[in-house]
Amino acid sequence: MTERRFLTAEWRDLALLNYEIEPDVLLPFVPVGTELDLWDGRCFVSVVGFRFLKTRLMGAPVPFHSNFLEVNLRFYVRREVEREVRRGVVFIKEIVPRRAIAWVARVVYNENYVALPMRHAVDGVSARYEWRFEGAWNRLALAGLGDWRIQDPASEAAFITEHYWGYAVQRDGLTLEYQVEHPRWRVAPADEVELACDVGRLYGDAFAPALSREPASAFLADGSEIIVRRGRRLTERDA
Question: 3-state DSSP call for residue 100?
């Protein structure tokens, strides 16, 4: 049974930096009932910045909170349900500029949202997302973008952008599963990239080695309208 719509919006100008990471780093964060999803035997985390536009909750616009920025650190999991493989995303931390947005996400999904001052600049050939953390501006920036195209389903870019479920660990240790709907996105590669932040203080020391290396890939996705469905708590039987 398809869950009701919880949120509709547009996700636009997604900038994605993707890093290979040792699976052992992520195992403590894997929600019950899921397992790490690998591409070509490789495990990834991604730092993603994008614009959240025309946001509506339960069909209603949110005054003064319809358009905002988000930067998140995420990794990839999968769950098998009978003959269906559900490929999903787990968030380590999500940054937004407004406390009310962070509060709703924490209450409804128990996602690790924080509110920090943010700013951005995008122009079709470059993208920059910045957030102010402990008195300094941090940034995610991409430039030198190439041809826009829908990626081969077997490609790394398709693997990164085409996970259509979200999973979040709940306060009781069980897992919330929710569906995210959007069409396939056009993607353009980047040849100039930058991640400038104190990884250890922002995300934890365990992530510093991976995020201090050169990324395995970097690209911009154009984005689209999206739907986030109401979540469903997995039971111990689902695990």
Answer: helix
Q: How many residues does the chain have?
A: 239
Per-residue confidence (pLDDT) for residue 1, from 0 to 100: 57
Q: What is the pLDDT of residue 207?
A: 98
**Which residue in 54, 78, 50, 82 sits closest to 166, CA to CA?**
78
- Beta-carbon neighbour count of residue 214 at 10 Å? 9
Query: Three-class SS of residue 191?
Result: coil
Q: Report the candidate in 91, 135, 141 with the shortest Cα–Cα distance to residue 113.
A: 91
Instruction: Please state, as a whole number, how many other Cβ atoms lie within 10 Å of the Cβ of residue 177.
Output: 22
Let me know: does 144 contact 191? Beta carbons within 8 Å: yes
Rounded Cα–Cα distance for residues 152 and 134 (Å): 41
Mark the ranges of the chain whose per-residue pLDDT is less than 70: 1, 63-64, 145, 236-239
Instruction: For residue 222, count other CB atoms closer than 10 A to its CB.
Output: 14
pLDDT of residue 75: 98
What pLDDT was estimated at residue 236?
65
Q: Are residues 176 and 229 in contact, defined by beta-carbon separation less than 8 angstroms?
A: no
Give the distance from CA 83 to its chain's centroid. 26
Q: Looking at this protein, which amino acid is placed at residue 187?
A: V
How high is the pLDDT of residue 17? Answer: 97
Domains with residue ranges and CATH for the chain: 5-233 (2.40.400.10)
Q: How confident is the model over 116-136, as pLDDT tens digits?
A: 999 999 998 899 999 999 999
Are residues 150 and 162 in contact, defined by beta-carbon separation less than 8 angstroms? no
